[in-house]
Design brief:
about 190 residues, alpha+beta, seven-stranded antiparallel β-sheet, three-stranded antiparallel β-sheet, 10 strands
């Protein structure tokens, strides 16, 4: 069932791109390399995510890197790296612990912010680099899902006003293997991506 829905969605997006292009719309193409170069610049300073855990404990996650693999058929593989510490009542219970996450999802554009956000993120792998079994096992189950939820609230890529001067001109977004395309109304869209 999921496979047929995926193919149906792809057919609809391709139809929109083809119909739109034939009626005064043009695609704005952004490659995977362009996205990852911009992400590298955006994550030179870690981004902080606060997560509430059970029994009054909290974790502060510092996301230090995100890379995307555009898989096609609307799918994105997210690779997230960073570290976290666990606190209880304002007291640190752990030293910073490295983590990594791999998840599949898609991307959505929020036109008012000129930003791409992760959508429908499903964790495939979450690992914590510590030898402390008491910390490792309980957190590995909980934190992967919490990181995925928090990731959906974090702008993954922000277009400048020069790149996307008229975000209201975006008609559709399609994710192909190695690139994504924004279908733009030609009367409002720039002619090329810078």
């Amino acid at each position: 069932m999921f496979q047929s829905a995926k193919y149906w969605l792809r057919a609809v997006l391709l139809s929109l791109l083809m119909v739109g292009c034939s009626h005064g719309a043009t695609p704005l193409r952004v490659t995977e390399q362009q996205l990852n170069e911009r992400l590298e610049a955006q994550y030179r300073e870690p981004r902080l995510l606060n997560l509430q855990l059970a029994l009054g404990a909290s974790a502060q996650l510092y996301v230090t890197g995100v890379t995307l693999d555009l898989l096609g058929d609307g799918e994105v593989l997210y690779r997230v790296a960073g570290d976290f510490d666990v606190e209880f009542g304002g007291t640190a219970l752990t030293e910073p612990v490295l983590f990594s996450l791999e998840a599949r999802g898609t991307l959505g554009l929020v036109p008012d912010e000129r930003a791409l956000y992760p959508l429908q993120v499903a964790v495939e792998r979450f690992s914590i680099e510590t030898d402390m079994a008491a910390v490792h096992l309980p957190l590995q189950e909980v934190m992967g899902e919490r990181v995925a939820v928090a990731l959906e609230e974090l702008a993954i890529y922000e277009f400048s006003e020069q790149q996307l001067p008229h975000p209201e001109a975006v008609l559709a977004l399609a994710i192909d293997s190695g690139a994504l395309q924004l279908l733009l109304d030609q009367s409002k869209a720039p002619q090329s991506f810078e």
